[in-house]
């Protein structure tokens, strides 16, 4: 299998030196503007890429690129979802009743987690959680029956995709995204969730992608005597590539309505793999995360899905896509 | 080479050297300035950013040193495109943190790193300007001032060795150097454009007109007006005489000796532009009718643009910025821009000398009369100053503050309506909205209730929470209130817990002093 990567590379987080990943950074590493082969092995699993590092399971062991955590934290970080404030959410599998429910454990930060401090909160999931993703200020949970829940910061309700007033669950507790359940009925359950920045997406079994959230995090209200420090300007801020985001999950059409088999969201961009084996990208490209190649170096981004010129190596096909906050990945396998 | 220019450059080199050796993550992971050292792995992402910032500072020093060579043809061995991208990456990563954390939980090192990033960004522009003609060309100076002001306003000028102190000193040096360059240019060339190319009308005093009229005050509800009070007399009023429940009153003689009225006139656009580095300094502006309306937002714009867009476009000659005018005039005709609740005097200390803290702000004052939980504001060591500057019909909706307040009117007129804390039950305090406690703000819109304003129609939430104004009017009938119109020189005492609605009648500039 082979892994191709593009995008933000300020800490060499897209460069897998096969020996010691923490070796000295030469000069100022540039970003990758086109998909570049960064890894090949018998088996490669989907990478987990964060702002400053990437973790990949390669031939059954985890390897790290970039400015990352120490080796003993890799397994935990690979299995967790992390918000922009460093909150970590992990699925804990328990023996009894493992088929029906499981638990989610939330830690305030990696250091609170590795110091053995008590978690912030523990949630019981029924039906059990099968997959997690994090956006800047909260989490999205996929359950085994194909339903989806969200929880997070109450300031940004649109990212939760649901009402948080009673009798609905409060924003801090996982609660179902009702509109999604109407769209994706039991015949077409959600099979994958992904999130980045202030956007969240769910992929149905039949291949439809629904997105919700807000273009940027911005508080809709401000009280007179509160500080205005951060609530002040959109300068130096990225907006998400999906320009029409709201609190209601919305179908995103790719190239006339192609079925999608895999999708991943970054902080301001997204990448999708369609059933016919093509890759599409949308959104921010300041760091080359769309992989448009050297010609795309001056292109700041696109607000429509763009077909990528990418061909899997001879005798291989694309099997998956992934995204870091400002990077994208394509995974290929031998036919 | 001018010595001021040398000073600016060495000042910047010192900053980059400092940034290249700063350890941000040895900080407490709280929103307070550092007190003690903690394990550096408490925030691995911030650690990585520190490393990136360090590298950019080092590259900038390298670029700076090649720029110093007189041989300008030599290209420096630094990828400038990548350097610009990395500085922009640093800024946007910091901004993500600014929004992801609730403002009171944002760890200090994020504000510090954002400040240092902006210092480096302005350094880059300084280096560019050396390689080219000078500061006043190519709007480079505008960009430099903008970067530094962003650090002050958005990040509070956080930092240890640099931060606010360094930025203030730099702005001072830049201003002096820019004047020197201007004078130099005026000597060598015929004076084409005076006053930074922005020609003011002959009389740059703000209009005192009240274009939307003035509410009729009822005699028995008008706040009493006093003069000749001693601090002792004021303290007795606030405590014994009112049994800890003082009413709002107006003083007419507290601030008459402020330079802002005479020698350093705040009613003069010319004077204010001079104090704001030719109008280059950024100010935070609230755009929209009132902070509880849909579509309300804040923007950071140069003071000059604020005057032109929102205060009085006719003060300026319309010959320049044509392409900008189309957009901004349209905007200005529909939107009100208000420089509100901003400590302009900390940002621009030169303006601080134009006013004095009234002695009454040191008076012993009673606690909140009805609700001690509203007293949770930390004790202020010194009174907290805020500037309020805007055109006619800026509105601050009915709300309460966690402090006693002296509202001092310097330019123009303002209408204020006040309800006692005891009347809270009639005033429909808001609840928690999107996780923010809004209980200090009322749902009532006094302007709509009184028929001064149209109700905002753009509420497309389904209108579930829409207020029935007719029934509210009936409900409020007989609920006592005080009102007043403040003119230049007037000071309104707003005791803690009193609900107040403030509406400017003309172009208006006020200063508020909070204390407890």
Automatic annotation (TrEMBL), chain A:
Gene3D superfamilies to which the protein is assigned, alphabetical: Regulator of chromosome condensation 1/beta-lactamase-inhibitor protein II
InterPro entries: Ran_GTPase-activating, RCC1/BLIP-II, Reg_chr_condens
A GO CC annotation given for this chain: cytoplasm
UniProt repeat feature RCC, residue ranges: 146-206, 207-276, 277-334
Pfam families given in the database record: RCC1_2
One Gene Ontology molecular-function label: guanyl-nucleotide exchange factor activity
Protein name, as recorded: Uncharacterized protein
TrEMBL record, chain B:
Pfam families for this protein: Cupin_8
Domain called JmjC: residue spans: 346-516
Region (Disordered): 23-44
Stretches with biased composition (Low complexity): 23-40
SUPFAM superfamilies: Clavaminate synthase-like (SSF51197)
InterPro entries reported for this sequence: Cupin_8, JmjC_dom
Name of the protein in question: JmjC domain-containing protein
């Amino acid at each position: 299998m082979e892994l191709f990567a593009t995008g933000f590379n300020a800490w060499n987080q897209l460069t897998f030196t096969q020996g010691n990943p923490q070796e000295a950074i030469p000069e100022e590493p540039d970003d990758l503007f086109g998909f570049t082969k960064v890894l090949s092995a018998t088996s490669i699993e989907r990478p987990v890429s964060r702002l400053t590092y990437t973790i990949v399971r390669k031939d059954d062991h985890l390897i790290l690129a970039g400015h990352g955590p120490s080796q003993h934290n890799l397994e935990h970080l690979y299995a967790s979802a992390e918000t922009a404030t460093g909150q970590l959410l992990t699925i804990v599998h328990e023996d009894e009743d493992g088929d029906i429910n499981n638990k989610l454990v939330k830690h305030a930060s990696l250091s609170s987690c590795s110091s053995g401090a008590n978690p912030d909160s523990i949630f019981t999931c029924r039906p059990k959680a099968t997959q997690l993703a994090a956006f800047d200020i909260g989490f999205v949970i996929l359950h085994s029956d194909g339903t989806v829940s969200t929880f997070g910061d109450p300031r940004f309700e649109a990212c939760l995709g649901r009402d948080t007033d009673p009798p609905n669950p409060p924003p801090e507790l996982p609660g179902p995204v009702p509109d999604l359940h109407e769209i994706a009925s039991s015949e077409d359950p959600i099979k994958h969730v992904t999130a980045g920045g202030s956007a969240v997406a769910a992929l149905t079994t039949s291949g439809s992608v629904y997105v919700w959230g807000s273009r940027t995090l911005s508080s809709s209200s401000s009280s007179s005597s509160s500080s205005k420090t951060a609530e002040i300007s959109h300068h130096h801020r990225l907006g998400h590539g999906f320009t029409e985001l709201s609190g209601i999950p919305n179908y995103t059409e790719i190239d006339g309505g192609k079925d999608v088999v895999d999708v991943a969201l970054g902080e301001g961009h997204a990448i999708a793999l369609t059933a016919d084996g093509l890759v599409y990208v949308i959104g921010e490209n300041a760091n080359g995360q769309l992989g448009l190649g050297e010609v795309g170096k001056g292109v700041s981004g696109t607000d429509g899905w763009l077909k990528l010129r990418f061909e899997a190596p001879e005798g291989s096909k694309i099997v998956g896509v992934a995204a870091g906050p400002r990077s994208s990945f394509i995974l290929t396998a031998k036919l | 080479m001018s010595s001021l220019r040398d000073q600016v450059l060495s000042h910047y080199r010192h900053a980059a050297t400092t940034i290249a050796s700063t350890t941000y993550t040895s900080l407490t992971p709280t929103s307070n300035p550092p007190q003690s050292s903690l394990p550096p792995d408490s925030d691995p992402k911030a650690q990585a950013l520190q490393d990136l910032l360090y590298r950019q500072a080092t590259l900038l020093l390298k670029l700076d040193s090649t720029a110093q060579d007189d041989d300008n043809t030599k290209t420096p061995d630094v990828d400038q495109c990548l350097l610009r991208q990395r500085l922009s990456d640093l800024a946007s990563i910091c901004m993500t943190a600014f929004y992801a954390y609730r403002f009171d939980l944002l760890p200090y090192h994020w504000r510090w790193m954002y400040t240092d990033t902006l210092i480096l960004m302005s350094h880059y522009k300084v280096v560019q300007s050396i390689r080219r003609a000078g500061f006043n060309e190519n709007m480079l100076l505008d960009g430099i001032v903008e970067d530094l002001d962003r650090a002050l306003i958005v990040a509070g000028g956080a930092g240890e060795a640099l931060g606010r102190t360094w930025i203030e000193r730099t702005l001072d040096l830049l201003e002096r150097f820019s004047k020197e360059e201007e004078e130099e240019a005026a000597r060598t060339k015929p004076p084409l454009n005076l006053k930074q190319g922005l020609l003011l009308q002959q009389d740059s005093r703000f209009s005192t007109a009240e274009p939307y009229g003035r509410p009729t005050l009822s005699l028995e509800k008008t706040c009493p007006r006093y003069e000749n009070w001693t601090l002792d007399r004021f303290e007795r009023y606030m405590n014994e005489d009112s049994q800890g429940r003082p009413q709002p009153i107006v003083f007419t003689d507290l601030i008459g000796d402020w330079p802002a009225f005479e020698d350093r006139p705040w009613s003069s656009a010319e004077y204010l532009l001079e104090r704001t580095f030719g109008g280059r300094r950024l100010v935070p502006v609230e755009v929209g009718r009132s902070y509880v309306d849909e579509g309300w937002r804040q923007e950071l714009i140069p003071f000059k643009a604020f005057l032109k867009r929102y205060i009085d476009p006719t003060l300026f000659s319309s010959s320049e910025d044509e392409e900008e005018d189309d957009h901004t005039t349209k905007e200005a005709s529909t939107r009100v821009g208000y420089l509100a609740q901003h400590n302009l005097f900390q940002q621009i200390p030169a303006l601080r000398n134009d006013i004095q803290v009234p002695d009454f702000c040191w008076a012993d004052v009673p606690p909140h009369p009805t609700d001690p939980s509203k007293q949770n504001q930390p004790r202020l060591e010194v009174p907290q100053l805020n500037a309020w500057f805007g055109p006619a019909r800026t509105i601050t909706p009915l709300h309460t503050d966690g402090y006693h307040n002296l509202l001092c009117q310097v330019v123009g007129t303002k209408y204020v309506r006040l309800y006692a804390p005891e009347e809270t039950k009639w005033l429909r305090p808001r609840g928690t909205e999107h996780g923010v406690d809004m209980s200090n703000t009322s749902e009532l819109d006094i302007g709509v209730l009184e028929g001064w304003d149209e109700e905002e129609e753009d509420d497309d939430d389904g209108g579930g929470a829409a207020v029935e104004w007719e029934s509210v009017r009936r409900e409020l009938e007989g609920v006592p209130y005080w009102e007043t119109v403040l003119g230049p020189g007037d000071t309104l005492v707003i005791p803690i817990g009193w609900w107040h609605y403030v509406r400017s009648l003309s172009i208006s500039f006020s200063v508020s002093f909070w204390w407890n």
